[in-house]
Design a protein that fits this description.
- It contains 22 helices and no strands.
- The chain has a domain at 335-387 and 408-446.
- By secondary structure, the chain is mostly helical.
- The chain is globular.
- The chain is 84% helix and 0% strand.
- It has helices at residues 7-14, 19-33, 38-52, 58-74, 78-95, 98-114, 118-134, 138-155, 158-175, 178-194, 198-214, 218-234, 238-254, 258-274, 278-295, 298-314, 318-335, 338-354, 358-375, 379-388, 392-397, 400-443.
């Protein structure tokens, strides 16, 4: 929809109001619309900037710039968003509005965390947290803690991620902000998923979808659908996976979420790969990779390179596969992406085994085991979080002995998920090793 299509609505907002009131209402509407209709939100924020420049109120201009930056953040136009946030930050700083510049730092830190600049992002987020804590801004403290949790989550430090999510949940339970509730459901779901608790993750994602739908938050609804689709894809439920992913993709396109498009496409590629359509899968992976390069998203670039490498290995192009793994490994090492390093070690081990380089396969198998072990978190932490979010009925059914039994079950389940995954991987590797050994023996002269 073009900007002029909103002229009547903009005129309606401006009617009977002075300049300052117009700016306030236009930015308020932009904020409400950015997760469901970013094109409209962008138009309203742009109009607010134009009007704000006619006033002497610098704070209103800064808030208008920040509002437009927020829209660009939602559509993954990160470079433009950072420019606008910095412009707003400078004005807030000049006017002594610490709340405003802390919000800009939170946003800049979130972008840097998203694209893999973890240390830079964390520094800004921690500064924003200090300011918002001094101001006792509970809503924003929740948001910043969530973003700090995401920073650790992205780099694979799941224990620290969970610790920050728990702090955010405790505050949000008191203020009951539905927007934060949606994000926290998704983020904690991703922790469950990383630790192998698929059912718990799915429950979180389903709750997030319901809540996001109730507040017309298409952006987070699309994320939850994509994550559900990835779980279904991992478990070979291709029909359910494609249903979720198709709906997510449709929402991503509607709100022009380029990062979300790339993230959803890569899972769709995995589904095609599972179905045996390797060439189509690779085309989709490359499409996702191009989008991530445009966005400068190192984390997703590394992950997608790994997917392409695995796809090529399935096509028996081991040499080319290793090139992609190594490129991914270089980015992951430079950025500090432990999950991607672990995945690469696993696939490189299998690839070396397939080309008869058994010593190298063993080296990378050992590296995979060590990395994967470092990614696991205390199951008791997951139990505590799960218990805190149980329904009243489940809580009333618990007894003292039941709680201890549940603890042991969850604790053992955590260990079993990790052990089962490791055993399965080692079993596959041993089979490959034995097959290669058998072939080599057949070639030896008798």
């Amino acid at each position: 929809m073009q900007a002029q299509d909103y002229r009547h609505e903009i005129d309606s907002v401006k009617s009977g109001r002075n300049y300052e009131e117009q700016v306030i209402h236009l930015t308020d509407f932009s904020e409400k619309l950015r997760r469901s209709d970013p094109a409209k939100a962008r138009t309203f924020a742009t109009e607010a900037i134009i009007i704000a420049q006619k006033t002497e109120n610098k704070t209103l201009l800064a808030r208008s710039l920040k509002s437009l930056a927020n829209v660009n953040f939602m559509t993954a136009s990160y470079d433009t968003a950072i420019i606008l946030y910095r412009q707003a930050y400078q004005i807030f700083n000049q006017t002594g509005d610490s709340s405003g510049w802390a919000e800009c730092l939170n946003a800049i830190g979130t972008i840097n965390s998203t694209i893999g600049k973890f240390d830079e992002g964390l520094a800004d987020l921690e500064t924003a947290l200090k300011i918002k804590t001094l101001l006792n801004d509970q809503k924003y403290i929740t948001m910043v803690l969530t973003n700090i949790g995401n920073n650790y989550n992205f780099r694979g430090d799941y224990a620290k991620a969970l610790d920050n999510y728990k702090k955010a949940i405790a505050i949000n339970n008191a203020i009951n902000n539905p927007q934060s509730s949606v994000r926290l459901l998704i983020n904690v779901g991703s922790i469950y998923q990383s630790q192998g608790f698929a059912e718990e993750a799915l429950q979180n994602y389903r709750e997030a979808i319901v809540l996001a739908s109730s507040i017309n938050d298409l952006w987070n609804k699309a994320i939850a659908l994509r994550n559900m689709g990835s779980i279904f894809a991992e478990n070979g439920k291709t029909t359910e996976a494609l249903d979720c992913l198709s709906e997510s993709l449709e929402l991503r396109e509607k709100i022009d979420d380029k990062k979300g498009l790339a993230a959803t496409l890569v899972i769709i590629g995995q589904v095609y790969e599972t179905q045996g359509n390797l060439l189509r899968a690779n085309e989709i992976f490359i499409q996702s990779l191009k989008l991530n390069h445009e966005l400068g998203n190192k984390r997703d670039i590394a992950a997608t390179l790994t997917f392409i490498g695995h796809n090529l290995a399935l096509q028996n192009d081991f040499e080319k596969a290793m090139e992609y793994y190594r490129e991914s490994n270089q980015i992951a090492s430079e950025t500090g992406l432990l999950p991607e390093l672990a995945e690469n070690a696993r696939y490189i081990s299998l690839t070396f085994a397939a080309i008869h380089q058994m010593d190298s396969a063993e080296v990378y198998l050992d590296q995979y085991i060590r990395l994967q072990d470092s990614l696991n978190i205390d199951a008791g932490e997951l139990l505590a979080l799960k218990q805190s979010s149980e329904t009243d009925k489940a809580s009333s059914d618990q007894s003292g002995s039941g709680t201890n039994s549940n603890f042991l079950f969850i604790l053992n389940s955590a260990s079993m998920v990790w052990i089962a995954g490791l055993v399965a991987f080692i079993f596959v590797l041993i089979i490959i090793l034995l097959m290669m050994h058998g072939k080599l023996r057949k070639k030896q002269p008798r």
